[in-house]
Design brief:
Elements lengths: L20 H8 L3 E5 L2 E4 L1 H20 L3 E2 L5 E3 H7 L1 H4 L5 E4 L5 E4 L4 H8 L11 E10 L14 E11 L2 H21 L4 E6 L9 E7 L5 E5 L6 E3 L20 E15 L1 H6 L2 E3 L5 E3 L1 E8 H11 L1 E2 L2 E2 L10 E6 L9 H14 L4 E3 L6 H11 L3 E6 H4 L3 E6 L5 E5 L3 H8 L2
Parallel strand pairs: 3-7, 9-12, 19-20, 19-21
Antiparallel strand pairs: 1-2, 4-6, 5-6, 7-8, 8-16, 9-10, 10-13, 11-12, 11-13, 13-16, 14-15, 17-18, 21-22, 22-23
């Protein structure tokens, strides 16, 4: 992609209606545009990141046996009445009437909808355990929409649901999902504490939240610096207690954190409400045991913008970046004996042919302006081709995350770039 052809440009000034640093950067860099409080448009660069997050998550969910599906956002009131959550969730439900005067809502989550579906598809226990997931928009009338993509009214979520014939099997699968989440956040290059939390309206059992330390966070979490054990403030019985419950060595410290994912043991709450049963060998029946596991994709983007950025801009991990390489030719077509532009164009095409996603800065701008855009966009590698580098028959490669510079021989650029992006 040529930079001159990008549909949206970077901005020099921070937006006046964004207050967290990550949200400001995402708007300034042209990744998102705020429509109104809690609602955003993903511009082409932002959508590329979002799709990369999808691919990462989808791969992990498929690997643990998840089967992808897609449920509607528009849901009838009757489903929520059956689960008893029409009133419980009333404050965040978007409610509407259709042309036939039927009361509907936009789904904030899908435990209820899926339970109603599975009544028609689960009989006996021959297919248990079973897990299905979707990546789909959710809608919540969030009164505290803030911090850009971290707390919004419309958001993209991956929600996985599992069905089991026993609590023991739910516990087994719960740990598998927990490990998959750890891998996901590690690939996103954010340190996510696996945090004990309450079950909320879902369950009397403790759940787990995945918390990333950030001043933009709204949760209070106690963490142990020795073993990384952590608890949400909601389940800390004595805030004055300082010793870690697990290693008994570390002194627990309180942090502000962003919740990027959560996992719940639902038990039989929804299967009891909807009549979802499995049969035993003696011909009896028991309620199906369920689990629910969510990740906010936009929240991941917003969190990375908050914690993996600097005063020059965003810093994306290579696996999520909208483009992996930013090519900067410094010169005009026909300049010099070596013809910088022709060589840069050739390198651009060669890198594309080898499967890399490239932004090529073809604009007649100063080196400083080009470097500035490469930095704010957070592209992992910046390649500079100039008369100076070509005197050494080389290309300057700069890593956005570390600032390290490598002079790579032209003949070895592809192999060196591949190694740096691993």
């Amino acid at each position: 992609m040529y930079v001159s052809k990008l549909a949206f440009r970077t901005k020099k000034e921070n937006p006046s209606d964004e207050f967290s640093s990550g949200a400001q950067l995402l708007v300034r860099a042209g990744f998102v545009e705020k429509n109104f409080s809690g609602v955003y448009t993903y511009l082409p660069l932002g959508l590329r990141v979002l799709r990369n997050v999808e691919t990462l998550i989808r791969g992990e969910m498929d690997a643990i046996g998840g089967q992808e599906m897609l449920m509607p956002s528009l849901t009838p009131k009757a489903i929520w009445d059956t689960s008893g959550r029409w009133e419980v969730l009333s404050d965040i439900l978007y409610k509407l009437n259709d042309g036939q005067d039927k009361i509907l809502s936009l789904a904030p989550t899908h435990e209820d909808v899926l339970s109603a579906i599975m009544v028609h598809h689960l009989s006996g226990n021959d297919r248990l355990p079973l897990c299905v997931y979707q990546i789909q928009n959710k809608f919540r009338d969030e009164p505290r929409a803030k911090s850009g993509l971290i707390r919004t009214r419309e958001f993209l979520m991956k929600d996985l649901y599992s069905f089991h014939d026993s609590f023991a099997d739910l516990n087994r699968f719960y740990e598998i999902v927990k490990e998959a989440y750890v891998r996901i956040f590690k690939a996103c290059e954010v340190k996510a504490y696996v945090t004990q939390a309450s079950g909320g309206t879902f369950s009397k059992e403790n759940s787990h939240e995945f918390m990333v330390e950030s001043s933009a966070g709204e949760d209070r979490v106690f963490v142990c610096p020795e073993c990384d054990f952590s608890k949400n403030i909601e389940v800390v019985e004595d805030e004055s207690k300082k010793e870690c419950d697990v290693c008994h060595k570390g002194t627990m410290r309180e942090i502000k954190a962003i919740e990027v994912g959560n996992i719940f043991k639902l038990g039989t709450k929804f299967s009891d409400a909807f009549g979802l049963y499995t049969t035993s060998g003696e011909g009896g029946r028991t309620s199906v045991v369920m689990g629910s596991y969510g990740i906010g994709l936009g929240r991941i983007m917003g969190t990375i913008a908050e914690v993996n950025s600097d005063d020059r801009g965003l810093i994306w991990p290579a696996i999520l970046a909208p483009y992996q390489i930013y090519v900067v030719p410094l010169g005009k077509s026909g300049d010099g004996v070596s013809n910088v532009i022709d060589i840069a164009e050739g390198l651009y095409k060669d890198l594309q042919a080898n499967g890399f996603d490239i932004l090529y800065d073809d604009r007649e701008k100063s080196a400083g302006e080009k470097f500035g855009d490469a930095d704010i966009l957070g592209i992992p590698l910046r390649l500079v081709i100039s008369e100076k580098t070509l005197q050494e028959n080389a290309v300057e490669i700069k890593e956005r995350k570390t600032g390290k510079i490598t002079m790579a021989p032209l003949s070895e650029v592809v192999s060196i770039v591949r190694q740096l992006l691993i």
